[in-house]
Amino acid sequence: MAKQKKIEPLVGEELLKKVKELENLSKEEKAKECGYYTVTKNGIERVNMMKFLNALIDAEGIQLDTSAGANGRGGRSASYRISVQSNGNLLIGSAYTKQMNLKPGDEFIITLGKKHIRLRQVDSDDSEVGEAMEATA
C-alpha cells in the first residue's frame, strides 16, 4: 500500500460532498478518505470512526445534545434570537458561527435596511462570496 500524505479532516459541506462521492466505499474507507485517521509509531493506520460520525452529525446540523451533561457543562444551544446588549452591540454567538463553519478573521459586508441587517461574506481579496445571511426585525 502506497503511503498517503495525511489530509486535514473534512467538515461541513465539504465532508457531506466527499461522503456522497464515495458512496460505494465502506464507512471505514469513507472516514479515512475524509481524513479521519491517524498513523501509529509503527506505521499502522487507525480510522477514528467516532470523530468521523460526530463530524457527519454536525455537518447535517443534527442536535443530539438537548441539555447539559451530568457535570453541568455543555454550553447553550442556538435559539435563533438575539437581543441588543446594554452597550448597543448585537452578539452572534459561537453556536451560529460553528454551524456556518466560520473561522476567526472571516469578514462580512454589513448592509442595513429599515428592519433587517444583511451580512455578506467576503474573501481575502474583498470579493463577495456565497449567499447573504439576513436577520429581520
From TrEMBL:
Keywords: DNA-binding. The keyword DNA-binding applies. InterPro entries: AbrB-like, SpoVT-AbrB_dom. Pfam families: AbrB-like. One of its GO terms (cellular component) is protein-DNA complex. It comes from the Bacteria. Residues 79-124 form the SpoVT-AbrB domain. One of its GO terms (molecular function) is transcription cis-regulatory region binding. PANTHER family: SLL0359 PROTEIN (PTHR42182:SF1). This is AbrB family transcriptional regulator. It comes from Mastigocoleus testarum BC008.
